[in-house]
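Researcher: Let's do a round of design. I'm pasting the structure tokens now; please hold your answer until I've finished.
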């Protein structure tokens, strides 16, 4: 006998141009960012119905990421928090989510491929 439970919906390594950074110049010129989002949600209904309305639509997740990444911020933590809040608001079935944002080639005095933040949120 099979029992249905939660599953994960993931968007991996979305590449976007955005204007985030502590330095004014970073927000003026912008740069490349890579975003990944993983949400934990109940799949039991979608497994039976084959209906996109019964799961977390990853196309809608992408629109949330694009919209929030378009708003300049100093801190990646702030952007990740906004993405998480919007996902929880848009999809009440999400029980947990992870958001990771990488800044490609951050302005540091060292060779560094990227700097990133990753948050984990429980939707209570």
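Researcher: That's everything. Go ahead.
Model: Designed sequence:
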């Amino acid at each position: 006998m099979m029992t249905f439970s939660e599953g994960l919906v993931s968007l991996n390594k979305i590449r976007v141009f955005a204007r985030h950074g502590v330095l004014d110049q970073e927000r003026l010129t912008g740069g490349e960012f890579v975003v990944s989002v993983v949400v934990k949600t109940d799949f039991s209904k979608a497994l039976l119905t084959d209906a996109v309305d019964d799961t977390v639509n990853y196309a809608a997740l992408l629109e949330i990421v694009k919209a929030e990444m378009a708003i300049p911020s100093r801190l990646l933590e702030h952007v990740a928090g906004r993405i998480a809040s919007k996902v929880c608001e848009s999809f009440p079935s999400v029980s947990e989510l992870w958001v990771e944002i990488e800044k490609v080639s951050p302005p540091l005095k060292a060779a560094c491929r990227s700097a990133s933040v990753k948050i984990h949120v429980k939707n209570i």
